[in-house]
Amino acid sequence: MTNLRPPRILVIAGSDSSGGAGIQADIKTITMLSGYAMTAITALTAQNTRGVRAVEACDPDFVAAQMDACMEDIGVDAVKIGMLGSADIAEVVADRLEDLPCPIVFDPVMVATSGSVLADAATIEVFEWLMELATLTTPNVPELEALGGASAMAERGVAYLAKGGDADGPMVEDRLVRPGVEDVVWSEARIVTKHTHGTGCTLSSAIATHLAHGLLLEEAVSKARRFVREALMHAPGFGLGNGPLGHQAVR
To answer: Is 163 annotated in the active site?
Structure first.
């Protein structure tokens, strides 16, 4: 029997104690898409579908040690960056990824679905460095605004996916913007549900996994969007707030 080795995805993000977002959503997504998930945990959170109760950021040197342990032994085919927890952690992550020759997907997590703030101003400043390194940055509506909007992103000359799930209206529009290339827009009917916890984590991890499988960026985004929509439609309905997706039900 031929041993087909799965692509190796290193996730650098925070843990969600309720399992709906963060590292937990990343591992589920990567596994369902036939990837091998490794993690460098940046922060521990006490949270559920109604909000984040407490956050404990990890020591930056420990985050770096986790990254080094994975990269030096198993190796990495793609990286997904999520919640970072502090400016010092963001800097050490950027430094470690500076010369890594593989796709990097950066989800600039600033606010949780519940509304809890997950990145301070100093951390957001370091996002500039990470966006330069990333193959793709995936801001939602408020995150794109905090990063200066489309004009500021154009000045940076980076590729990004402007996610429209937080905008109003019956349709959801996502726009892939790349320097020197015509924009690609996906527009589909909104799936009406309150169970959206972890959509951003899931999408960015799915994109990273598809890139690690060798897909081109546009196809990777398209397939990742389909995965998220199916997971939304199969949400188990857990919790009293914004519940988790149904990763395990996607086929």
So the answer is: yes
CA distance 204 to 224: 8
Whether pLDDT at 29 is above 80: yes
H or E stretch covering 173: strand 171-178
The 10s digit of each residue's pLDDT in 66-104 is: 999 999 999 999 999 999 988 999 999 999 999 999 999
**What percentage of residues in the chain have a pLDDT greater than 70?**
95
Catalytically annotated residue among 49, 199, 202, 209: 199
- The rounded distance, in Å, linking the Cα atoms of 127 and 168 is 27
- Catalytic residue flag (residue 201): yes
Q: Which of 138, 163, 209, 243 does the annotation list as catalytic?
A: 163
* Per-residue confidence band for 2, with pLDDT thresholds at 50, 70 and 90: very low
Beta pairing, strands 181-189 & 171-178:
antiparallel
Global pTM reads 0.94
Per annotation, catalytic residue among 20, 164, 198, 243: 198
Catalytic residue from among 85, 200, 243, 246: 200
198 catalytically annotated:
yes
Tokens coding 142: 């408020």
Mean pLDDT of 204-224: 98
Query: Which residue among 196, 202, 209, 246 is the active-site one?
Result: 196
CATH code, 8-136+195-249: 3.40.1190.20
Of 82, 79, 87, the closest CA to residue 202 belongs to 82
Known active-site residue 200? yes
Residue 1 confidence (pLDDT) above 50: no
| Cα separation, 231 vs 161, whole angstroms | 19
- What is the domain partition of the chain in residue ranges? 8-136+195-249
